[in-house]
Amino acid sequence: MNPEHLPTGTPEALAAARLALLAAARRQVDILLPRLDDTIYASAGELAELRRLAIAGRGAQIRLLLHDPATALRDGHRMILLMQRLPSVIRVRTPVDEVDLGNPSSCLLTDTGGYLFQPDADRAQGRAALADRPGWAPLRQRFDEMWERAERAGMLQPLDL
Fold it and tell me: How wide is the angle at C-alpha 116 spanned by C-alphas 150 and 21, nearest 5°?
């Protein structure tokens, strides 16, 4: 199977790739971000797709590894409200291991084998595909390892109990 690669290289192309990947996901996405600012995962289309995934029913899961949840909360990112309304589906963790905190990359992984990977989250360069399991597998393994080492970001929950 020849993977369908998506264009990257500009902020607009990255936004279109994110939206296409979210729309193609069935029930699960994994997101790694050093910082959640108002230019990513904040458009009406992206939020609608995240909401669709979150309420998809049994098996719905959104895992977010966020280096700096305090800034996202302070800045009032549009995704925060969704996280707080659906904390059992949208789980957020913060890396604590030095090797993970020093990693400037970002990625979006879908349950359909799609991915968007940026080696440096602050630059528009990266690679993306709607369905490319061979390219997706090492990114997923790295994400899972980082997830296991990370701690729950309780400050983003409506009540940190």
Answer: 105
